[in-house]
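User: tokens in, sequence out, please.
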């Protein structure tokens, strides 16, 4: 995905830009959906890692805590500081970031780029891009 390149509109090929707009929006929509799916998987992974670590904490309480009946804060401290949980949280934060960026890109391609195309077509219809009908002398105008 190259958002910076895809957002650019070639004013000299508005017909091609219009033809490509729908498929471009679909491409970014799919990318956003994939990012959201990865975010949901990262959220589920956090829950899974937490459950595994809590289960481990109860199973090996004497070895981990030196007490056969650990307190809830001790168990929470155990799983929150465990490297697996920390990595799962980092993965979730990264997935959240990617999902947010993908959403912004999708909306900009789908709405802002489409609106820009519409306005450029209107300007083209009004001969905005046509050359001057009377030759201009720039030196006199300055």
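Assistant: Sequence out:
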């Amino acid at each position: 995905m190259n958002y910076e390149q895809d957002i650019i509109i070639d004013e000299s090929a508005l017909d091609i830009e219009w033809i490509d707009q729908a498929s471009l929006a679909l491409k970014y929509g799919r990318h956003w959906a994939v990012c959201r799916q990865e975010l949901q998987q990262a959220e589920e992974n956090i829950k899974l890692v937490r459950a595994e670590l809590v289960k481990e904490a109860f199973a090996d309480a004497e070895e981990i805590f030196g007490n056969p009946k650990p307190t809830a804060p001790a168990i929470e401290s155990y799983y929150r500081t465990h490297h697996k949980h920390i990595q799962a949280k980092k993965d979730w934060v990264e997935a959240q970031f990617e999902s947010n960026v993908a959403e912004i890109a999708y909306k900009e391609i789908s709405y802002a780029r489409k609106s820009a195309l519409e306005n450029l077509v209107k300007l083209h219809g009004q001969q905005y891009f046509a050359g001057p009908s009377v030759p201009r002398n720039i030196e006199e105008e300055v």
